[in-house]
Design a protein that fits this description.
alpha/beta, 8-stranded mixed β-sheet
Amino acid sequence: MHKIQYTNGAYRSQDQKGPFLARLYPSLVFYFHLFWIVFRASRHAQRGEYDGTNWLESSNEVLQKLENAGICVDISGIENIARENGPVVIVGNHMSMMETLLLPVMLQPIRNVTFVVKESLLSYPIFKHVMCSRNPIAVTRTNPRQDFQTVMNEGVDRLGKGTSIIVFPQTTRSHSFDPKQMSSIAVKLAKKAKVPIVPLALKTDGWRNGKRFKDFGKFDVDKTAYFSFGQPMMVEGKGDKEQATVNAFIEAKMTEWQA
């Protein structure tokens, strides 16, 4: 099985020279493989046979197919997750479906992890069975008060059982970063559960938005996909300092990568 091999907590794709067709028609060939990966995973999930190891293997396969298509993936700061003994809340910006598919291969080898997701994802054809099997926290994105209570109650429960939680607190996915769009719900969850919060900066705009279907756009293989995990922090007081630190970390990384 294709594996991520880290060097000093970092990884960068070394060889994206995949099959000829994958390089000639990267988006078309990748989506064909992605459908097959998700279809197989869904069948296992429907039978109750899809666990964290299976999720890791599926994510690994997606990474390999992305690299075959010519996407370079750059990961840094994974040691900031690995050195923590217990669960954490990971909070980051959100650009494309790529992070949902690739974060399991980065994090699941270290500890169990799940997402806070939109309820609509749990009704996606085929994909819904895979997502439901990972026991995510589902929010409406239309009722802020209800969503807050859901994340607080279910989040504390998941964290108490040793599962780390990934939160994308922006109101919507965006290929640019606006700190004003970042709610403080992840910081508040980490404070209530008394676990560290870890900033995650990512840049996956090489996976473009589709014209008819937002999740299925063409690839820009000239753009590197970046993921960087920051230093863990315990939340003190109201969490304003920690929220500002998360935003500053993401902004700094975005500036660095755009340069």
